[in-house]
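Deliverable D5.2: sample structural annotation.
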Amino acid sequence: LRRNFPSCLSSWKTPPHALSSSQPEAQFKAATNGLPLAPLQTFSEEEMMIKSTVKKFAQEQVAPFVSKMDEDSKMENSVIQGLFQQGLMGIEIDPKYGGTGASFFSSILVIEELAKVDASVALVCEIQNTLINRMIGKYGTEEQKATYLPKLATEKASSICISEAGAGSDSFAMKTRADKKGDYYIINGSKMWISCAEIAGLFLVMANADFSAGYKGITCFLVDGDSEGLHIGKPENKLGIRASSTCPITFENVKVPKTNILGQVGHGYKYAIRSLNESRIGIAAQGLQHQVAHMATQLEAARLLTYNTARLLEAGRPIIKEALTDPLLLYPPRPSPARHPPFPPCTVTNLSPLDAPPVLPLPVESVIR
């Protein structure tokens, strides 16, 4: 991306050539800043080039290793290096720090194209771009940015440490502590289910620096992966995204300079909430909220389908396909087996090729997992 698409820095400043008609274009002007708004399903030339480039990279440099990485539960080193070489680990990082300088939307496009081939690789890219890089970019000092962003853009993977075994569903009940000792903080505690732990060279660690303040004592620390006292445990044997390691991490008197506090002391919980909300865009709604999220997604999809069709019509674009898609099909008033198959599409797909069982050689079985 850095080499080929420096123009990716801008978002929609001009509509695509196909939309450049005088009267319809004027109707696309946003009332707030006068910039034209693009139809939701239409990409700029730069965005199309991003999708094409990442698709080619995923097919040529990731796809050949998917089965091996899944079987070994380990990310191939050449794949990680390829992500850096293609500029996919510093998508929003300012070019002055060695990043691509593209948009958040570009990150989502990259994650989508990678996920089509391997969700584990997409997760590595997603954590780096939508969590770590953005948090340092937003809350880091100039010194922190100059120290860490160039490495994150070119050579160092990263992760965030929030979850703890004893905290249950309440992440803010964490027990990991950070005790101030002069110009340093001493971190002690343990974290669970830390994604990409095995390949990370930098961790954003949430620890409580003032238990008397409750969750308002939670502070975010920049901790190097080779810090003395930081121990990464055995990876979990997971059902899916196996190439992306998920490990416990123990902190035993890990010494961190106070200059490595990200943002302000006691504001870690705020940063975590804001950043996780943003990063969820890249992984969508999962887990126990699937049913509620599914209904909400159907409703939103119907609404966006309607909006997008109207915008395409005003732009003078063909709308035959969109107009024939009845939004009611997305959420029928009564359950219908024809409209709501009992299995997810990937499950149905898996049963299609000669009724083959879901054994490991079939690529689609990994999608089900």
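Annotation notes: The radius of gyration is 23 Å. The beta strands are 157-161, 177-181, 184-195, 200-208, 218-224, 230-232, 246-257, 261-262.
The annotation will be released with the project's public dataset once the embargo ends.
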